[in-house]
Specification:
Layout: E1 2-11, E2 23-25, H1 41-47, E3 67-69, H2 74-82, H3 86-95, E4 100-103, E5 107-108, E6 115-124, E7 133-142, E8 151-161
Parallel strand pairs: 2-3
Antiparallel strand pairs: 1-8, 4-6, 5-6, 6-7, 7-8
Length: 167
């Protein structure tokens, strides 16, 4: 069994980016504020509707895969990536990385109170030795700091089964 823990958070606020090979920058409309550091407190409050902006409480342990600014509303991005959307199903189909895919809907965990969903898929393996596929079970947990319309922090735990000596 292989365990991989990673944290994924998505924020509607824009951040300055370093130019490295793991950075993807999608042009943001000129009408959207890109840097709140040059605004006064009252202007920042106007941008956030008078409320304090959401802050992610996750430590973000693990390896950074990509950092991107995507010029769409945060709720639409969440819907595209973390629901049973046509976009996500098409994404898996184009990648051809799964022969089986099942997703539960987001449900409240009775023990933690956090929303969770489980994604199960079968991924083909292209190694000359070992099994030809693996069963992946991904548990996605919405962190308590998530605020619709502002910030979604999703903790993802993946477990790959059926690979000898992988634990």
């Amino acid at each position: 069994m292989v365990r991989q823990d990673s944290n994924t958070s998505t924020s509607a606020r824009s951040e300055s980016l370093s130019h490295d090979r793991n950075t993807l920058h999608v042009p943001v409309s000129e009408t959207l504020p890109t840097d709140m550091s040059d605004t006064t407190e009252s202007e920042a409050e106007k941008q956030s509707g008078g409320c304090k902006p959401a802050v992610c409480s996750s430590p973000h342990e693990g390896r950074k895969i990509i950092r991107a600014i995507i010029p769409i509303h945060i709720d639409l991005l969440f819907t595209l990536l973390f629901t049973n959307s046509k976009f996500l199903l098409d994404f898996y189909a184009v990648r051809r990385t799964t022969s089986y895919l099942a997703m539960t809907s987001w449900q409240q965990d009775s023990q933690t109170g956090n929303k969770q969903r489980v994604v199960t898929l079968t991924m083909p393996l292209n190694q000359s030795v070992g099994p030809k596929s693996t069963q992946v079970t991904e548990t996605q947990t919405m962190m308590p700091c998530s605020k619709p319309g502002e910030l979604y922090a999703i903790d993802t735990e993946s477990v790959n089964a059926g690979i000898p000596y992988a634990d």
